[in-house]
């Protein structure tokens, strides 16, 4: 039977060593080496410096919040607390305090995602990939994901749109070289070569989101100028439709009395939701 961690007060949390009768809800001490990472862990990148700082804090003060695990064979699978587990290994702990939960595969991903979102630990690409996994692997609609995450449906849909960026831009966004605002503006450019060219200008010239938006507008207006000049009121109408539908909308005039409204979608799920909105 493993011993209690000297850094985690049993008096403070009522922790005890794990035995065969360990059940859900209570706090126990589990061997560090018996815990494997959550296979659905949405966070992929962990900065070394913050981990070292957390390890130093754990050495000094102990682990103040137990990790959350589920039983997995002879050991345990982590649901929440990846940073604390990694830092505990750096700090040299042999055991860590855990709470044992019962959770389905869907709940494992949900709990890991919610924890990271609440702590603002995920970069925009990691969040988008996790939302997409909830949609692809577990069949949750964008509305259902939004409710579980406490966000709006357009926010979820727009986040997933980021996965349509080329790898070079996704990496820059994940590493913080551009912001999510830059990325969403750049998605407005239809031509991928022009989008990449402007993206590289953003990096080189350190363009603000506002500057980038102006450049995007110029690129897209130039794309249409050979056809017909735009009514200055169209942009306001487009913006109203974008807010209502949660996706990119383009209005194009054709002559004096006609035109077309182009509504973009990014997957069958979003297509179905748009149809429902437009016909309800």
What is the percent of helical residues?
40-55%
Determine Rg (CA atoms, Å).
24 Å
Beta-strand content bin: 5-15%
From the 3D coordinates, which CATH architecture of the domain at 10-103 would you assign? Answer: Alpha-Beta Complex
Question: What gap, in angstroms, lies between the N and C termini?
Answer: 61 Å
Strand and helix order: HEEEHEEHEHHHHHHHHHEEH
CATH third-tier fold name of the domain at 10-103: Conserved hypothetical protein from pyrococcus furiosus pfu- 392566-001, ParB domain
Structural overview:
The protein has 13 helices and 8 strands. Helix 2 (48-61) crosses helix 3 (82-91), helix 5 (124-138) packs across helix 7 and helix 9 runs parallel beside helix 11. The protein has a domain at 10-103: Conserved hypothetical protein from pyrococcus furiosus pfu- 392566-001, ParB domain. The termini are far apart. The longest helix has 16 residues, at 209-224. It is an alpha/beta fold and 280 residues long. It is elongated, with a radius of gyration of 24 Å. The strands form 2 sheets. The chain has a 6-stranded mixed sheet, with helices on both faces. The chain has a two-stranded antiparallel sheet with strand order 7-8.
